[in-house]
Amino acid sequence: MTNATSPAPQAVPAQTLLLLVRHGQTPTTGKVLPGRAAGLHLSEQGQSQAREVAERLAGLAVDAVYSSPLERALETAAPVAARTGIGVKEDPGLLECDFGEWTGAALADLSGLPQWRTVQHTPSSFRFPGGESFTQMQARMVDALDELRAAHPGAVVVCFSHADPIKAAVAHALGTHLDLFQRIVISPASVSAISYADGQAPAVLTVNSTSGSLAGLRTP
């Protein structure tokens, strides 16, 4: 009689957790398309939101912090860097969409343009005059996140970015067509979390989270 040999346990793929954080409130949030214009800083409310993000991340073993090079994103990342002792690395892949000639335009003015309907309902077919298309923006953001998760396998990586790039990344992870990405809401200083493992589809753990501890996103 021979003893049956138990099969060797399968190795569990390392889970890489990317936290996508929109920058905090600015004086122009909800009023204009600031785009990549320099010199836009957080408002007092935005600074408070940035501190709250750092507090919410307490209990998570953060391994790396990346940010869009724009001031409002870097300022939102600063409290997390101070709390964790991890320096912020700038990543141009996390930049806001290039709105081209629409940069700095008032949303109230843009909403009256016939092109605005395209932006809202079929964004995959739209390119900002003199700027990026939504398709280019999504590809850039997804590529940046792929590079970050490849560089930090099994780690927790916090990425500070902007509303539209985060919406596009979440839509891609969900397998949702870009034309539906405007249905995703990404509020100032909100956190969206995507877990990646080799050979598996990404798992969207939370979207637009604005309160409460985030420690539960990472199980021991």
TrEMBL record:
GO molecular function annotation: phosphatase activity
InterPro entries: His_Pase_superF_clade-1, His_PPase_superfam, PGM_Phosphatase, Phosphomutase_MSMEG4193_put
Gene3D superfamilies, sorted: Phosphoglycerate mutase-like
Superkingdom of this protein's organism: Bacteria
Annotated Pfam families: His_Phos_1
GO terms for cellular component: cytoplasm
Family annotation (NCBIfam families): MSMEG_4193
Protein name per Swiss-Prot or TrEMBL: Fructose-2,6-bisphosphatase
Species for this entry: Pseudarthrobacter phenanthrenivorans (strain DSM 18606 / JCM 16027 / LMG 23796 / Sphe3) (Arthrobacter phenanthrenivorans)
Species lineage: Bacteria, Bacillati, Actinomycetota, Actinomycetes, Micrococcales
